[in-house]
Amino acid sequence: xxxxxxxxxxxxxxxxxxxxxxxxxxxxxxxxxxxxxxxxxxxxxxxxxxxxxxxxxxxxxxxxxxxxxxxxxxxxxxxxxxxxxxxxxxxxxxxxxxxxxxxxxxxxxxxxxxxxxxxxxxxxxxxxxxxxxxxxxxxxxxxxxxxxxxxxxxxxxxxxxxxxxxxxxxxxxxxxxxxxxxxxxxxxxxxxxxxxxxxxxxxxxxxxxxxxxxxxxxxxxxxxxxxxxxxxxxxxxxxxxxxxxxxxxxxxxxxxxxxxxxxxxxxxxxxxxxxxxxxxxxxxxxxxxxxxxxxxxxxxxxxxxxxxxxxxxxxxxxxxxxxxxxxxxxxxxxxx
Length: 336
Ligand code: X2X
Fold this sequence. Notes:
By secondary structure, this protein is an alpha/beta fold. It has one domain: 3-Layer(aba) Sandwich (D-Maltodextrin-Binding Protein, domain 2). 50% of the residues lie in helices and 20% in strands.
């Protein structure tokens, strides 16, 4: 029996009201949304905000269910993009770092000391370079909708203040995602080791690693200082944007109205979360300092020493990212 004939058979004899309910529930859709961090962090809150807005405006027709802590990829955050592309996950609010193994263009944001401040981030994501990045994602089977922000990543460790590349000498640093991070910390003379966020916390607790790098919001909410990370250096060496995205096949099954709704709500949630993350930076820093963490700020000269020490990373990775994309980003940064 074909599905339509079967449906006709099943629906015969149902009242008008029951038919209406059936039609309504047949339309109601639930999409899974993956995140690495929970709603204790701005990142998780970005996804929850998206879900809330969709719930409100779709009148229950569309539901986003957020699955935090990389649970849909068993903690392996670098598999999130593949899982979304293959349809195991419908949607995600994900980090450019974690998706960069599958989308090499995303390494743009991880180039050390390349995008120095918030206006530079906005110039890159909001201009031609941002469009090129979105095209790169789309060409790999995922529809990108909006930007959010995990934040500028700062380095911490348990041994002593870091004010120059020599201070990183031999330090075991937990890094994320792409091999680019391996190169950056090798160039600085450290001993980097790649691991997921799930594995990072026990590794910091046991002292298996000496240091890590993450935005202030993550350091603060996860209480990284309480696992011995007493020294924090503000070096803004890279910004970690978040991207709201949906699997392409799922996207194509949605109505035009639903697509517009998802895009508009993602944009709104992303703007809301980015503004909040930025606004909270100074109070987070104060809270971290109050808990006894030594905070090191770099002089221009010290900053330049880090830039010089990581020049080789830029040269090695610019061609892999795509020279035209790197140039578009550079133009946006210079023109801001
Ligand atoms: O693993 C990390 O350090 C985190 C939580 O910041 C990311 O997922 C990029």
